[in-house]
Specification:
It is built from 14 helices and 6 strands. It is of the alpha/beta class. The radius of gyration is 20 Å and the shape is globular. The chain starts with a strand and ends in a 5-residue tail after the last helix. The mean pLDDT is 92.
Length: 304
């Protein structure tokens, strides 16, 4: 049996993963499977910073603009779909690449996630309406009542999407979400090599701020305005859009909305680094250390 390897290139938003990953993929001769939960959506062009048309032409990508914001798509479904794509790739190639910064998507492929039941539309609509009517604090308290372990130990309680999902699972199963999440690591038929990309924090944050400014210049406000009628979709509860929806609601000025996008993106990058920092399988590099990464891969018997 051939030795099949998945090279994972991960890191915080704004660090420069895309350009580096494309160059590595060209050198290795690999296709790229995106692990970005926002670049998945075809309608979102500016605020999700998708790979350029040149990058998409240079290397075959999967899960870029593959789904609609009007679809309900979960990390669990991504695991099924991504493993299917990787299986197909490995039928003819020995190396593939997983590239992105969405923590749950990366874990879904590398470790597997628990077999969480599919949430029916009635339950999803119910909890989203409760959230809209009564606010975050109410649903936080409800989750604390139904699943104190998940509330206290496992969840980002400031993220309404995560709180709502936990409540949905509690509702349809009649059990605490924490009981269903076993954390059992799935066995994969391929070797996994994790390459982390990072920058000194000051430089990373400056990159993030500059990228947001470029998005605004490129028309992010106009793009967000187009999706304002659908602002309650879970898929649009994301940095870069939700702040502008507050501006359209008249709650904050455009200047504040832009500053909030920068702030929230920096917070997300910090969260990513905290998450990845717990994974001892990751070897870290600067984005300009391409040759060091190549040497690392060669030492791990990846020859190109």
């Amino acid at each position: 049996m051939r030795n099949q390897v998945l090279i994972v290139v991960l890191g915080p938003t704004g660090v420069g993963k895309t350009e580096l990953a494309v160059r590595l993929a060209q050198r290795v001769g690999a296709e790229i499977v995106s692990a970005d939960s926002r670049q998945l959506f075809r309608e979102l062009k500016i605020g999700v910073a998708p790979p350029s048309s040149e990058n998409l032409a240079a290397v075959k990508h999967h899960f870029i603009g593959s789904h609609s914001i009007f679809e309900n798509y979960s990390a669990g479904q991504y695991e099924i779909d991504a493993i299917k794509i990787l299986t197909e790739i490995f039928e003819t190639q020995d190396v593939a690449m997983l590239v992105g910064g969405s923590m749950l998507y990366i874990d879904a492929v590398c470790k597997g996630i628990d077999d969480i039941p599919t949430v029916d539309e009635k339950t999803r609509k119910y909890w989203n309406e409760i959230y809209r009517e009564k606010g975050l604090e109410f649903i936080q308290n409800k989750l604390k009542e139904l699943d104190p372990k998940h509330f206290n130990e496992q969840i980002d309680i400031k993220n309404p999407k995560r709180v709502i999902h936990a409540l949905e699972i509690c509702t349809i199963t009649g059990r605490p979400f924490s009981e269903i999440r076993t954390g059992k690591i799935a066995k994969r038929d391929f070797e996994i090599i994790k390459i982390g990309i990072n920058l000194p924090r000051e430089i990373l944050y400056n990159n993030i701020n500059e990228r947001v400014d470029k998005m605004i210049t490129a028309g992010l406000v106009e793009e967000a305005e187009k999706f304002y009628p659908y602002k309650n979709l879970n898929t649009l509860n994301t940095v870069g859009y939700k702040e502008l929806f507050e501006y359209f609601d008249g709650k904050i000025s455009l200047e504040f909305a832009i500053e909030h996008i920068k702030r929230d993106t920096r917070h997300y990058a910090k969260k990513q680094l905290s998450w990845f920092g717990r994974d001892k399988e990751i070897t870290w590099f600067l984005p300009n250390e391409e040759e060091k990464i190549v040497d690392c891969l060669r030492k791990k018997k990846i020859f190109f």
